[in-house]
Amino acid sequence: MRFEVSRVTRRSLLVLSLAAPALAAPPVAPDLNWPQFRGPEGQGVTRETGIALEWTDTKNVLWKTELPGRGHSSPIVWGDRIFLTTAIEGEVVPGAKAVKHINDGEEFIHPDGIGADRKHTFKVLALEAKNGRILWERTSWEGTPVDSRHRRGSFASPTPVTDGKRVYAYFGSEGLYAYSFDGVLAWKYVPGVVATMGVGVGTSPLLYRGLVILVCDEDNGDNSFVVGLDKNTGKEVWRVPRKVQVSWATPVIVSAGGHDEVVTSGTEAIIAYDPATGKERWRMKGLSSNAVPSPVAGKDVVVLSAGFPEKLAVAVRPGGSGDVTESHVLWRYTKGTAYVPSPILYDGYVYLMTDKGLITCLDARTGEVKYEGGRPPVAASFMASPVAVAGKLLIMSQDGDTFVITAGPAHEVVRTNPLGEPISASAAVSQGRLYIRGERHLFAIGTGS
User: Residues 6 or more apart from 291 whose CB is under 8 A from it?
Assistant: First the structure.
């Protein structure tokens, strides 16, 4: 059976880049755009060459732009446009509080949940890629949010997605917003209450042909669902309930057995749907832990992982039907996974990373361990997911350091690049540049003008 990460997005990007309207960004070859969380195929991998792999806060920084508010969403890039989201905190609102959560029959208040008692402004920003100038910023929503967020997190954690005509930005219960490239609101969609046990949303929207796909898992899963929206109108084309508790992972779209599948992570169940109709194609036993890292995919394999309360990575062969727990699971590995950062699958190897940056390399198809516990040169914490470029893995710490690691079956740290401010968002690569969102600035890294 032939399997690969879905080429639908790549084909549609090519059509759009050849027929881009005047208000869209200038046309660029589709693989040079970074249109969604973790890039063209949602894998964190670029095949671009000539990317700068050495920088400091003054060396090879083409520009940096101060950003308002707080956000952990990744920048996305199409042509000469960069989009990201942010949340700006305001004053305390007397009486405001998060939606009530029930866990094991009792009211639950997350000890690290904050922010529901304050007014917030959620924004979408557009920047000019060549110089970092903010072209426009639009207020999508203002008020007191339905739920709180983790004190280390952000109300602007989901990464937008673009098709080259519009940008689609998701803020959980507060809505999904579609803007033209010149900042005109086309439509908004409000999914209802998407409660997150008090820590905020994390899953990012996907595009599939004419649809925007959202996974809306909440609290105990009683009202969880996955939905496909018409990208032109925001109207529901299909909607499927799923008994899966709150998750933060972004799905991945793959092709297997002559059809496409959107593979979703989850605590109770891992489920694949037909992205065109929402029909369930297959399911298997879930991760039994918080589904935060996003799945990664390669030839004949999808790897899903979780890091809390227990560590697990599981590889499944897509293209099945019904319950595939016993028939399609290729391997399991019970250590080395992260609570937050996603793994990365690059040239046949899957790299698991802990929240402290320890890396395990496995053969993606067989699960054979190549090495375990590869350490960064200094102790650090991580929230951003790795990026693969030119035979190297880039892992970015909350101290603002990027460790450049040789990809392959032997662990070697070849360089440490300091940037001077914490990094929580995953990076983007486009048209010869690396875009890194720090705590206060967006940086463009490169060697040319």
Answer: 217, 244, 247, 248, 249, 265, 266, 267, 304, 306
Least confident window among 14-23, 64-73, 84-93, 99-108? 14-23
Q: 308 is in which domain, residue-wise?
A: 3-445
Calpha distance 233→339 (Å, rounded): 36
Q: What is the pTM of this model?
A: 0.93
In the chain, % of residues over pLDDT 70 = 93
172 three-state secondary structure? helix
Count of H-run helices and E-run strands, the chain: 1, 38
CA distance 359 to 255: 28
What is the token pair recorded at 118? 């304050």
CATH number at residue 191: 2.140.10.10
Judge whether 349 and 388 are in contact, CB under 8 Å: no
Cβ 52 vs Cβ 177: under 8 Å? no
pLDDT of residue 318: 98
What integer best gives the mean pLDDT of the chain?
A: 94
Paired strand residues for 331: 315
Helix (H) or strand (E) holding 17: helix 8-18
Distance CA 427, CA 424 (A): 9
For residue 332, report the phi and psi dihedrals to the nearest 5 degrees. Answer: -135, 150
